[in-house]
Amino acid sequence: MPSPRLLSLSLESKSRLQIEYANWDGETCLLPVDLDYSVGNSEGTFDTGGFHFSRSARDVDLAGNVLHAQLSTSGGVWWDDQVVVELEFPKAPITSGPPRVRLHRSDPQRLSPWCRNLRLVGKFMLAGQCLQADGSYRDVYVNLDKCLGHNNGAFDRHGRGFSSSAAAVELVGTMMYAVWNHVGGPGGVPGRAAIGLETILHVTDGVPKPLRQDITPEELDLEVLRDDPWGIQERSWIPNATNIRLLSYRRKRFWYLVADFQVPGGTFRESLLALHEVLGPHADQMFGGPWFSSPDIPEPARETRLENGILRASFQGRGAWQERSIDLRGIVTSRDGQLVLHRSGSDCPGCRELFYAGVLYTPWSGHITKLDLPSVKSVRATCVLCRLFNDTIKSYTPRAASHEAWVTTAPGTRESWSHASKREVQLVVRATLGGKHKWQALLRPKPSQAATMMETRYTLLLDVEAAGTEDDDDEKLSAMPRRLATLARNNSNSCWLEPERRWSVIGEWFETCSTKHVGCRDVGDDAPELPSRYLDIGPGTGEDGRQSHVARVITASPGERGSYACLSHCWGGSRHVCTLNRETEGRFSAGIPADLLPPVFVSAIAACRRLGISRIWIDSLCILQDSVEDWQRESPKMGQYYSQCEICIAATSSASSNAGFELHATRPSAVRSSAPAGPRSQRRFSLLMQPADQAQPPPHFVQAQKTDTTVRDFPLLTRGWVLQERWLAPRVLHFGKQEVVFECAETTACECGGAAKDLMEQIGLGAGFAAIRSTTTARHGLLRRRTHLEHLPWDELVPMYSALALTVPTDRLTAVSGMAAVLYAKFAANSGGPKVSGVSYLAGLWRHTLPRDVAWFVGETLLRNKANEQRLEVTGSRNSESRKPRPEQYLAPTWSWASVLDAVRYLEAHDQISEFRVLDTHVSLATDNAFGAVAEGCSLHLQGKILPTAWTLRPVKNGTEREFVLGDLVGTQQLDAEDSPGLVFAPDFDIQSPGIHQVRPMDVLYVFPVLTQQIKYARWIREAAEMFDASRSTSCLVLKAVDGLDPKYGDVFERVGFAEYANFGGGKRNLDSNAYEMRSFFLV
Description:
Strand order of the largest sheet: 38-35-40-39-41-44-45-46
Number of helices: 21
Protein name: Heterokaryon incompatibility protein-domain-containing protein
Number of strands: 60
Oligomer: single chain
Radius of gyration: 36 Å
Shape: flat
InterPro entries: Cyanovirin-N (IPR011058), Cyanovirin-N_sf (IPR036673), HET (IPR010730)
Domain Heterokaryon incompatibility: 564-725
Domain Cyanovirin-N: 115-176
Largest sheet: 8 strands, mixed
């Protein structure tokens, strides 16, 4: 009788295995097996005790009896993994039945059969030999730091950089062990962890590769370059070293020098030195500049080679490749069988241990160099660096029984070679306080005498001054010793390190802007006309000679001119008592007592006096707060007031009028150690030391892209009224929690010096990194950089403004009316007349750009590249419930963004073509302000295409949200899929909220195309570039019929949502098959 045997294994689907076998009777049988009931996925690895692996698997394949797949982690990273499929047949015919399927892991098969001589070079570089297809073995190296991390005393397969914190690492076979000190924090015990290399690596094409798929090939593409490939050197340039070689990344400027050293017993031990770390101080020799350029730039070097200690490579500059070299023989040597740096650069006994190869060495690895404090103190008179160390300890630390100090680099500055201003060299001082004196050693200590330790960090900076030139970097570099060129340069203003200079620096900013920035003052030579009321803040005295008031309200004469400041501030949750009204008007005209003014007003007045300004406009003291007529008369002028003021004082970090801003120095001055006077200037350079927490720049506006960050640090900038105050004023002086920021249309400056740099990073990187498909909000965020107002497109201003908060919803148009008025005036000036042909303002939109302006939407974009692609630009949910209801109180017509209370967005414009005609427009103004609030009766008379459709709700795949679908609209919102009916639309508001604006399931909706445009996606999605370039999308308004109107008006609709779709069918794009009907109608 034949024995049962396996005939074939095949994979019918991602999770269905088909087994063909012969039983005890010789019959051929088929056994289908659902693998989802036999194996699961546990963070990227097959789990033989789990279920439903296929839900998070892709590229499932069966090779022989080994099941391969890529499995996703909870973080979305894909890992390669495999399991072996084995069959267990019944052992006797009496127990005949189908075979039992067993799955087991096959990790040892990934490395052991293919690799030999595996070893660690240093703590992270795996070296070995891999079997090639021709039967030979090839030397291979893998940087394990790229694919292995550390978490709480254990290896982390999903992390990186495990070696930076490991005290000891050892490899035994394919099992790697590591010890981490202080697991769980200081005082913890060393922890030993182990991991099998088979769980992170496998061999393919004769090369070890990571199982995780988020590691690019460039990160592991190391080639081995021999220093003496022909064996012609008689003697190694590194003492006692043999087999010197360079491990070079082909596409990144990362280089590792490796050499063999003979150890007792006749064996050899390898030593590794990361050249890209140690070459930073010597970059000027090879790269033509004082700082090491970024190693992360793709393909920055080619034709790298090492020839008898000379490192050569070609670099691209000005369109051509140029070869450069650096002599490693004066930088690298050996000591005790290890590659090390030469010790040279200083003969000072206090600081010479800090210098290697002629420069102050600032390693990335967190290496510390302990200082000999008695030696430092003894040479403080002759050594500028030791004097700085000594004075820092003396100035900042209290008297103590003992001190110890060391120099290191700040945590988290590993990538700092590419940005010199971010590389922090730190002095760490540990002071022992309250201990016993020597003569008390035999006495029982009192509790108060117990010794305590205090550890503080200070940042070391280089401050260079050039004689006779301004900002001349070459002059500055030539004026300092090269041995200090590795120190981070001080880029902050002098008042950041010496706070007593704050107001002199502010005065310089103000003077430069007022006299040299032509674009910051668009007025004639005459002083501007004063506001209707203003505060006179000149000193007032009584009969006793004492100051009787801080300010008094002045009513300006018609045509009176003069300079003045404006205040921008938050009122806060409750109205303050110091307001102008009919009762206080007379008293405040005589003078406002100092104790009655809220702190913000007092601080603003003090700031104006510092700047020599004697008038200020404050809304609550210059507009009658109990008079609607005065408000309606003055509010349209607020844009004019801010645009013509001398400066706007902004209480940017004050959440209410009761929280003033600090005008005095709140930071300690830095310790400065100046070099002796040289022949070319009185002071060529200085070394500075400041507390490390002070060296970290405070948050700036451009970093505040998240609402919670803005509310915490800059509450003023979350307010709707403030947008036009900030943009219209020629210059703004922001008072933050830690510093003052000066802002105008041509520059942004702050005390720490970081604001301008952050702006440049935002301008350089912000255009594409926020999302897959660009919108106006994705490109610039809430707080984009100030510029000339006429350069700000309306479709960028509206998203910024709509995201801000207003206490009174009916102010939604009024609070931006000043900017609209200024823009209209500029349109008129450019056209050469008081009126602009074809340009009119329509409740927050402009007629001449109406197709673009009306295509706003709320929430996320609707198109995607392919199935299951994550929409990265989510500012809102698909759920209508996540939106605010449309107020029953009339704010604006439904076609205006001002009719909803959520933030709106626009798609970035690309070759837009209008799909409708404007027959007529009508706007009913609520006041005399042509750019302010509107009343019911606003309408657009349009001619365009209309498509009636049913709508429904359907659940999203995750089950927690629902999306709104137009059942009869045909198209595609996934560019690699063909047209089909049922497209998602974005409601403008919570359309399910009960009330007059509720949209019910039985209501018929109407699709109204307003424009088509070319689809543009971010540059890094290259695989679908042709698809994007060939596709156009249609942007539509979703409308609802308005019932109950006189039939003589014809069709009347109101807007309830937005939709966008593309067309793709029969291999052709942009052929719209929807049965639209051309109609004339009113939109209200």
